[in-house]
Design brief:
With about 375 residues, the chain is an alpha/beta fold. The protein folds into two domains: about 190 residues, Medium-chain alcohol dehydrogenases, catalytic domain (Quinone Oxidoreductase, Chain A, domain 1, Alpha-Beta Complex); about 150 residues, Rossmann fold, CATH 3.40.50.720. The chain contains eleven helices and 19 strands.
Length: about 375
């Protein structure tokens, strides 16, 4: 009997999600079939659905924060990317990005997140094939040979945050945080909280989180934030900058500032929170939110700062992140505040980037359970 599975298919930019059922393909040699357990809704999913990312092919099945169980193993597949043995039913995480490993950025510059031929699950990696099982908002994911699959020793909710955690890890790696550093995180959403965890793991001594609402700041405290500053309680930018600087050694400002809010106005504010000679890391803008005004003398030259950008994540970040998740050091499962069915995917995406409320409750992170 042919296996059938459902997927949430988006017909076009700013279009309609429909739940459709299709025949599930057998895995090819070197591939596998994964039964989806959870897939987080990312801000990037909302950007793509609203037409804010270029070169998107429709129809499309979104979803790139995917955890599931092994349904079928293709010929020749016996272990995960790191050599852990695989059996039917094992929980695995699918690293969404697939770099070519041969282009100039991959092979020469060794920056595969900038790969010229990069593909990804949830971004329709095989454009000449039907979209049905190429993203995480479906009951099954058809794995392409050469994909990075990691066996997970964690429950599904905890494991589901691995991909956004890798964004924080990549930022921290590029920033080269020093042990004992004072760090500011702008934004208390999923990327901000997970960047906090990565900074803590890397040896940051004092971490200040600036964001809202209070429930997210409370969670930041659980992750190890030393100070939280609420945008709602301190709406004045100059006052927030003064409060941050007062919490830093000598009042000079933070050693590192990570902009994770994706709000243009946060950038000059964060630069003012940074000490002379510090490092500013920008990763919150995964799409174009508009321009900002900065002062080259005051913000860059006179302060002699290092400015760093971070795009996506690569295989080492997933392996390091798996170790963090399996260590049990951080309450990763608490980041997922809502779990919804495929039928409510559109409602979840509508809440991301607008009200940040779902059924009247504040959102930390929403995950889709396709078999619910």
């Amino acid at each position: 009997m042919t296996l059938r599975g459902k997927a949430a298919v988006l017909d076009r930019s700013n279009g309609t999600f429909t739940i459709e059922e299709f025949d599930v393909p057998e895995p090819v040699p070197g591939g596998m079939l994964i039964r989806q357990e959870l897939c987080g809704i990312c801000g990037t999913d909302a950007y793509m659905a609203r037409g804010h990312l270029p070169n998107v092919t429709f129809p499309l099945v979104l979803g790139h924060e995917m955890v599931g169980s092994v349904e079928q193993l293709g010929e020749g597949v016996t272990e995960d990317y790191t050599g852990r043995p695989l059996s039917l039913g094992d929980r695995v995480y699918i690293a969404p990005g697939i770099a070519c490993r041969t282009c100039y950025y991959c092979a020469v510059l060794r920056q595969p997140t900038l790969c010229l031929k990069r593909r990804g699950y949830g971004f329709r990696p095989q454009k000449d094939q039907p979209p049905h099982f190429q993203g995480g908002f479906s009951q099954f994911i058809d794995i392409i040979p050469g994909s990075v699959i990691l066996k997970m020793a964690a429950d599904a909710k905890t494991a589901s945050v691995l991909e956004p955690l890798t964004i924080g890890i990549h930022q921290v790696e590029r920033a080269r945080i020093e042990i004992g550093a004072t760090v500011v995180i702008q934004g208390a959403g999923a990327i901000g909280i997970l960047t906090l965890a990565a900074a803590k793991q890397a040896g940051a001594q004092r971490i200040i989180v600036v964001g809202a609402p209070q429930t997210r700041l409370d969670l930041a405290k659980e992750y190890g934030a030393d100070v939280t500053i609420s945008l709602e309680e301190v709406p004045d930018v100059a006052e927030r900058v003064a409060q941050v600087r007062a919490e830093t050694p000598g009042g000079y400002g933070a050693d590192f500032v990570f902009e994770c809010a994706g709000v243009p106005a946060a950038i000059p504010e964060g630069l003012d929170m940074l000490r002379r000679g510090g490092t500013f890391v920008e990763a919150g803008h995964y799409t174009d939110h508009g321009d900002i005004a900065v002062n080259p003398f005051r913000h860059f030259v006179n302060k002699q700062i290092t400015l760093v950008g971070a795009w996506g994540a690569d295989t080492p970040h997933f392996i390091w992140g798996r170790g963090m998740i399996e260590s049990g050091r951080f309450p990763f499962a608490d980041l997922v505040s809502h779990t919804v069915s495929l039928e409510r995917l559109a409602d979840g995406i509508a809440a991301i980037g607008t009200t940040y409320r779902f059924d009247g409750e504040e959102i930390r992170k929403i995950a889709v359970a396709a078999h619910a």
